[in-house]
Amino acid sequence: MTEACIVGWAHSPFGRLEDAPDLETLMARVARAAIEDAGIAPEEIDGGFVGVFGEGFTPQGFPASLVLQSVPELRFKPITRFENACATGSAAIHGARDFLASGRGRFALVVGAEKMTATPGPKVGDILLTASYRKTEQDIEGGFAGVFGRIAEAYFQRHGDQSDALAAIAAKNHRNGVDNPWAQMRKDLGYEFCRTESEKNPYVARPLKRTDCSLVSDGAAALVMTDAETAKAMNKAVRFRAAVQVNDFLPIAARDIVRFEGAREAWSRAYAQAGVGVSDLSFVETHDCFTIAELIEYEAMGLAPEGQGARAALEGWTAAGGRLPVNRSGGLKSKGHPIGATGVSMHVLTAMQLTGEAGAMQLPKADIGGVFNMGGAAVANYVSILERAR
C-alpha cells in the first residue's frame, strides 16, 4: 500500500458545548481549519471521509455532505460517511488511506464529530448499548458500563481485585487532562478521590465507579492526509508505519473477554508491519472508555504480561515521566469521548506529539507513537504506529 501521511489537523474543545447545537456546527469548527493547517486550498481536497456514530445521537441520518456547509469548495467531490461504533473515527482514517493508495486522489480530508449531550441520559445509555450484542447483553444492568463492569468482575476473579490499579489509571488520566486545552475535565482529582466510593463518585456498574467511566461529550477533530511523495513538499508530515484493523466476535460470551484477543492481534500485526516492538514506542494513546479497558490494553500491547497490567499503573510505567507514557492527553477518561471524533482526535494528538506541537502535553521524547482505538468491547480493533516524516 502507498504510504500515507498526516499533514494537517484541527481539534475542537470536547465537553458540553452549548454553543454547538448540531453536527454541522461541530464540523465547521475543524474542517476548514485542518485544511488551512495543511497549507493547501480547499479545492485541492479530492475526497472526504466523515465519522459519525450511527445509532441515534442526531436525527440527521445522512451526515457526509454536512461538511459542505462550512467548506462549499468540496461540492461535487466524493464524501463518504464511516461508522464502526467507538472506532468510527479510525474507520474513516482507514477509508482515507485506501482512497489515497488507490490513486483516486492526492489529498483526503477526515472529519470525526459527535453531538451527544443534547440526548437525555437514559437514551444515551440505550444508544451506547447498540455497540454490544443486544440478543444476550440487552438487559445487563448499567448498559454499556455494565458490560465493562462484567469484564472487570471477570478480570478480578481471574487475577485478583485491581481496584487500586483502576484508581491509579483514572487519577493519571485526570492529572494529564489538566494540560490538554481541549479536554472536557481539566481537573486533577487525585488518587484517593478516584479510589473511594462517595456521593460524588458512586458505583455506576460494580466494580466501576464514576471515575472509571469516560464522559458523554460533544466535539470534533479533523485531519488532512496525503501520499508520502506529496508529503515531502509539505510543511510537516507524520507517516503511518503501520495501520491495522482486526475484528472479533460481537458477543462477549463468544470469547475470553478479559484477554482482549482482537486488540492483541491488532498490536501484534502492527508491530510486524512497522518493524518495531513495544519497547520502541515513545508513547501511546489508547482507548480508555473505562479504566478496566486501559488496564487490559497494557497487556494487549505487550507492556505487561497477562494478569500483570496493574504493575504498569501502580509502578508509574505509564505516567507522563514513565517508561511508556499512556494517554498524555488525558485519554477518553478526561478528554471526553464524542464517539465519531475519538479516533480522529487520538491521531491528531499523536501527530502533535510527534511534531513537537503538543504544548503543555509535550513529552521530551516523542519519536514513535502508538494509537489504539476500539469499537465495542474489543470488537473492532484499530492500531496505528506513527512517526514524524518531516
Helix coverage percent of residues? 25-40%
**What is the tally of helical segments?**
13
Strand order of the largest sheet: 3-2-4-7-1-8-11-10-9
Mean pLDDT metric: 97
Write down the CATH topology of the domain at 4-119 and 216-231: Peroxisomal Thiolase, Chain A, domain 1
The low-pLDDT segments are none
Describe the structure.
The protein has 390 residues and is α/β, with parallel strands linked by helices. The chain has a domain at 4-119 and 216-231: 3-Layer(aba) Sandwich (Peroxisomal Thiolase, Chain A, domain 1), CATH 3.40.47.10. The protein has helices spanning 23-38, 88-101, 121-129, 134-137, 143-159, 163-177, 191-195, 228-231, 261-274, 291-300, 309-314, 331-335, 339-354, and strands spanning 4-11, 47-51, 79-82, 107-115, 203-205, 208-209, 218-227, 238-247, 283-286, 368-375, 380-388. The protein has a nine-stranded mixed β-sheet. A two-stranded antiparallel sheet has the order 5-6. A hairpin with a 4-residue loop joins strand 10 and strand 11 (380-388). Helix 2 (88-101) packs across helix 13 and helix 6 (163-177) packs across helix 10 (291-300). The mean pLDDT is 97. This is Acetyl-CoA acetyltransferase. Residues 6-227 form the Thiolase N-terminal domain. Residues 254-388 form the Thiolase C-terminal domain. InterPro entries: Thiolase (IPR002155), Thiolase-like (IPR016039), Thiolase_C_2 (IPR055140), Thiolase_N (IPR020616).
Reconstruct the topology from this structure.
Layout: E1 4-11, H1 23-38, E2 47-51, E3 79-82, H2 88-101, E4 107-115, H3 121-129, H4 134-137, H5 143-159, H6 163-177, H7 191-195, E5 203-205, E6 208-209, E7 218-227, H8 228-231, E8 238-247, H9 261-274, E9 283-286, H10 291-300, H11 309-314, H12 331-335, H13 339-354, E10 368-375, E11 380-388
Parallel strand pairs: 2-3, 2-4, 9-10
Antiparallel strand pairs: 1-7, 1-8, 4-7, 5-6, 8-11, 10-11
Helix pairs in contact: 2-13, 6-10
GO molecular function: acetyl-CoA C-acyltransferase activity
Domain Thiolase N-terminal: 6-227
Protein name: Acetyl-CoA acetyltransferase
